[in-house]
UniProtKB/TrEMBL annotation:
PANTHER family on file: FLAVODOXIN-RELATED PROTEIN WRBA-RELATED (PTHR30546), FLAVOPROTEIN-LIKE PROTEIN YCP4-RELATED (PTHR30546:SF23)
Listed name of the protein: Flavoprotein WrbA
Domain of life: Bacteria
Domain Flavodoxin-like positions: 6-192
C-alpha cells in the first residue's frame, strides 16, 4: 500500500498555532502518514519585528525547527493542512504568500484531487476563528483540493474546535491550546490522513 504524505504548512508567532500543528501531525502519524511540518516565513523586516517584543526571537527559534514550505512540498503531499493565527478575521499574510506561490502547480493541475484542511488560533473569544477557517477553504477550492472539514465526526468536537477545523484561543497571553483543543487537532490529523489515503488509492486504481 502506498504511503500517505501529509504536509502541514503553518504560520505561528507565539507558538499557539505551532502547538496545534504538532498535534495534527501526531494524529496523522498515528494513522500511518509521513508528515512534513513547515513554517511560513516573515514578510516584514527585522526592524518591524523588533517593535513586537519576542517576535524576532520566537521566529528564529521556530525557523530553526522547521523548514519553509515549498511548492515541491505541496506536490509531494497527498494532503495539505494549512494553519494560521487570525489577522483581522482572515489568514496571516505570511501563509497567504505561500499559497499564492502555488500558481505554477495550479496551472498544471498538480493539486487536483488532494485532500485539504485548515486550522487556526485567535487571541480572543469570537476573534474570527470561524471566518478565518472558512476563508482558507476558498484558495483550496481554486487549487482543486477535496475539502476535508472536521465536522462533528468525533466526540472531541462537542468540547472544542469548530466543524470547519481545529482552533485555539490564547486570551491575548499566548496561552497554549487546551487538552480538548489538542484532542480535536489530533482527530483532524487522523481524519485528513484517512481521507487522503482513500483518495490516493482511488487515483492509483483509476490510473492502473
Amino acid at each position: 500500500m502506498a504511503e500517505t504524505n501529509v504536509l502541514i504548512a503553518f504560520y505561528s508567532r507565539s507558538g499557539v498555532t505551532e502547538a496545534l500543528a504538532k498535534a495534527i501531525a501526531e494524529g496523522a502519524e498515528a494513522s500511518g502518514a509521513v508528515v512534513r511540518l513547515r513554517r511560513a516565513r516573515e514578510l516584514v523586516s527585522p526592524e518591524v519585528m523588533a517593535l513586537a517584543p519576542g517576535w524576532k526571537e520566537a521566529a528564529e527559534a521556530m525557523n530553526a525547527r522547521y523548514e519553509a514550505p515549498t511548492s515541491a512540498d505541496a506536490e509531494w503531499a497527498d494532503a495539505l493542512v494549512l494553519g494560521t493565527p487570525t489577522r483581522f478575521g482572515a489568514m496571516s499574510s505570511e501563509l497567504k504568500a505561500y499559497i499564492d506561490g502555488l500558481g505554477g502547480l495550479w496551472v498544471k493541475g498538480k493539486l487536483v484531487g488532494k485532500a485539504g484542511s485548515v486550522f487556526c488560533s485567535t487571541s480572543t473569544p469570537h476573534g474570527g476563528n470561524e471566518s478565518t477557517l472558512l476563508s482558507m477553504y476558498n484558495p483550496l477550492a481554486h487549487l482543486g483540493f477535496i475539502i476535508v472539514p472536521t465536522g462533528y465526526a468525533d466526540p472531541s468536537l462537542y468540547k472544542a474546535g469548530t466543524p470547519y477545523g481545529s482552533s485555539a484561543i490564547s486570551f491575548s497571553k499566548a496561552e497554549p491550546p487546551t487538552a480538548d483543543d489538542l484532542e480535536v487537532a489530533r482527530f483532524q490529523g487522523r481524519r485528513v490522513t484517512e481521507v487522503a489515503a482513500a483518495l490516493k488509492a482511488f487515483a492509483l486504481a483509476k490510473a492502473a
